[in-house]
Design a protein that fits this description.
By secondary structure, this protein is of the alpha/beta class. It has ten helices and nine strands. The strands form three sheets. A three-stranded antiparallel β-sheet has the order 2-1-3. Strands 4-6-8 form a three-stranded parallel β-sheet. A three-stranded parallel β-sheet has the order 5-7-9.
């Protein structure tokens, strides 16, 4: 019985296949500038790019090519971790490997950050054509081409615009305008101010109000605004209404005030100018000569 049991165990061991061991290897260092034999080794292992990980059979030949703990790892640039199939490999962290293996020459810009400049004017074999995309002859085919701001011969924008910025009145006041014809909607005897006008939608809130004389007014109103035209003031006062101006009048300088008051002041009565005396021999009355007739002489 014991012999039979041992024979059955041997047959079972032969029937169950052995679990193949695998090795995970990662290319940690670039092969650029390496010796030809090392590059051939990396290519024979099937690596085509940096940080590529491959599962390789765990045998002495592969382990001799990719051993991470000896000096061979510095030459070959491979790190390996042996596992059974389906098992989890225990490898070093990527940050540690990068910190240990990264050099200054490994720093590269992001993909697509730098593009090669077009090399034009290198002949028909360069792929850019004989004329380098400029066509046959003409102004655009020359080295100068069109200057900046050229508009085909018409007056360019830089010359059409005025050279100086012009004058801007620093004392300009922007009014929200309302005409007399719009004031007829308010009842007679009421007070019309900026708040009531804004509530009625006639002016914009927050702006000074100016009343103009367009249209007619048929009722008595008390109008309060920031400015009035002379015709609007006369029309409102003609209907018995009153006009109230909001805000202080504009201040002017002393020289301008003196000029205005001088214009408004009445002129003093000036004495009549005395006529100059005529020169000698001119303007004096000549003595009258009476001619006598013969009859008067006889008498």
């Amino acid at each position: 019985m014991k012999a039979k049991a041992s024979e059955s165990k041997k047959t079972l061991e032969k029937a169950t296949p052995e679990i193949a061991k695998t090795l995970k290897a990662t290319l940690r260092k670039s092969t650029i500038g390496a010796k030809p034999n090392l590059r051939a080794t990396v290519e024979s292992l099937g690596f085509r790019r940096l940080n590529q990980t491959r599962e390789l059979p765990d045998n002495p030949a592969v382990r001799g090519m990719s051993w991470s703990r000896s000096t061979e790892s510095r030459t070959c640039g491979l790190s390996a971790a042996g596992t059974r199939s389906g098992g989890r490999a225990r490898t070093k962290s990527t940050s540690e490997e990068t910190r240990r293996n990264m050099q200054l020459h490994d720093l590269k810009p992001a993909a697509g950050a730098h593009r090669k400049a077009r090399r034009i004017g290198r002949g028909t074999g360069s792929g850019r054509g004989k004329t380098s995309g400029r066509g046959q002859k003409g102004q655009n085919a020359r080295s100068e081409g069109f200057r900046l701001g050229f508009e085909g011969g018409q007056m360019p924008l830089s010359q059409r615009l005025p050279k100086l910025p012009g004058f801007k009145n620093p004392f300009k006041r922007v009014y929200s305008v309302v005409n007399l014809s719009k004031l007829s909607r308010f009842p007679a005897g009421s007070t019309v101010d900026a708040a009531s006008l804004a509530e009625a939608g006639l002016v914009r809130a927050g702006l000074d109000v100016k009343v103009l004389g367009t249209g007619s007014l048929d009722r008595k109103l008390t109008v309060v605004a920031h400015a009035f035209s002379s015709s609007a003031r006369e029309a409102i006062e003609a209907r018995g209404g009153t006009v109230t101006v909001i805000g202080e009048p504009r201040k002017i300088g002393p020289r301008r005030l003196a000029a205005k008051t001088a214009k408004r002041a009445p002129k003093a009565d000036e004495p009549e100018p005395v006529a100059p005396s005529p020169p000698r021999g001119e303007g004096r009355e000549k003595p009258s000569v009476v001619e006598s007739t013969p009859d008067q002489a006889e008498e």
